[in-house]
Amino acid sequence: MSDERLRRLNAMRDCDRILSGVRPKTMRDRLADLEAGGDLDGWPDFYGDGPVEALEERVAGLLGTQAAVFFPTGTMAQQVALRYGADRTGIPAAALHPLGHQEVHERHAYAELTGLRGVRSTIERRNPTAAEIARLGEPVSTVVIELPMRDAGFVLPSWDELVAVAKASRAIGARVHFDGARIWESTPHLGRSLHEVTALADSVYVSFYKSLDGISGAVLAGTADLGDYARAWRHRYGGTIFQQWPAVLIALAGLDRELPRLPRYVRHARTIAEALSLLPGAKVYPQPPHTHQFRLWLPFPASALGAAVLAMAERDGVWFAGGWQDADVPGYAVTEVTIAGHALEWTADDVAEAGARLLAEL
């Protein structure tokens, strides 16, 4: 870990107030989370039984699927989902968005390790529409929908759009796979329960560390046939690990603690986003946010914003938002804002005051 990153983590951990993100946890903090996830006097898992099976059953119940299979990483789970579609349909191609996780963050594992070919579903900064799927022009085994699409700004379709694209995918003979790493917080915008949302898909991947405060791990959920297939390929990919109980217990704790809070985070994100949009030169997208995460642009260099945030945190004990990057918009930098935990304590006036303080620092 770099000295600069360590400095940011220490500063954020010591802040009394945090607007974006959650307070970083040490390894000792994580040990305390284990207690909340299950009986530490019980037996650990052995190659996927015990606590792993308990988590799988819990997630299958939450999603309303026949099966759920735990994977150490989402990258592995998504490869298996696309491989399954290709094997079952005989079509070695999948419809993917160029901003989707498989293309941007997984180093094209579906192509490099599985030999599949990606077909671009759309070039718009959103998920594909039913019309775009209908005119793909070539057969695909799976259509991937990312809920929400993180690299487009955490954007979601409407419920009617999602229903239509699922129908259009099946009309061309394709399966529907939801890249649902953050599907947990998508239900308020869609206006439907998790059961109703996942019922539109043939397979769903969910993550435990992106919104539920886990340390690692994912689940691939779907039919019983998919579950059998996923367990076989999980083993072949090296994902059937001897023991994974720390990640599993902390995931269970996250389901208990964070999942019920997500609707509140989503609602409060709208208040915070509106207040941030009133800062001089600020731009917020989407407005209002679709989930509890959104993007914020300010008219300063990323390096200057990062330094100002850190200085304000170390001096005043207030963390504004980190992770600034220079944007495509000339003269602006952008960051991802996550409303969770301590951010619920912030009012619009608090945001205005902290924003003014940050701008004065700049």
From TrEMBL:
Protein name: L-threonine aldolase
Organism per entry: Actinoplanes philippinensis
Top-level taxon: Bacteria
GO terms under biological process: glycine biosynthetic process; L-threonine catabolic process
A Gene Ontology molecular function term of the record: L-allo-threonine aldolase activity
PANTHER family assigned: L-THREONINE ALDOLASE, L-THREONINE ALDOLASE-RELATED
Entry keyword annotation includes Kinase: no
Pfam families in alphabetical order: Beta_elim_lyase
Taxon lineage: Bacteria, Bacillati, Actinomycetota, Actinomycetes, Micromonosporales
Family according to the record: Belongs to the threonine aldolase family.
GO cellular component: cytosol
InterPro entries membership: ArAA_b-elim_lyase/Thr_aldolase, PyrdxlP-dep_Trfase, PyrdxlP-dep_Trfase_major, PyrdxlP-dep_Trfase_small
